[in-house]
Amino acid sequence: MNKKELVELLESLEIPCNEGIQHMNDTDKLPRIVYFEYIWEPIGASGNEYDTLVRYQISFFSLIPRDPKLILLKKLLNKKDIMAAITHEYIENTREFHSFFAIDVIENVN
User: Distance between CA atoms of 43 and 73, rounded to whole angstroms?
Assistant: First the structure.
């Protein structure tokens, strides 16, 4: 999967979806997604870097841990042979569930 495909997949859920930080006007909308990159791992051959494996955290916020849009996201990823281990936590002060997982994509970071 490349980044364009990842973004298209996330946006296909038709919920607020932002890269890096959530927009102020989306903080009260549920469900919503925020995603960001946190690891760049060079892919090399013959001593040269030719591409980069970029790991993204996908954070899904909702009122329930098994939100139908999260289940749909899981199914869409599974169709692409991506079996993500999804972690859940409850955020008491906002009364939201935060479900999150990592996805690796191939990107040209140069």
Answer: 28
pLDDT values of the chain reduced to their tens digit, one per residue, 110 residues? 999 999 999 999 999 999 987 666 666 789 999 999 999 999 887 777 778 999 999 999 999 989 999 999 999 999 999 999 999 999 999 899 999 999 999 998 87
Could you tell me if residue 7 is left (phi over 0), alpha (psi between -120 and 50 degrees) or otherwise beta? alpha
Query: If we measure between CA atoms, which residue out of 59, 68, 69, 109 comes closest to residue 89?
Result: 59
Name the 3-class secondary structure at 5: helix
What distance in Å separates the CA atoms of residue 93 and residue 8, rounded to the nearest whole number?
31
Q: Which of 25, 21, 24, 27 is nearest to 94 (CA)?
A: 27
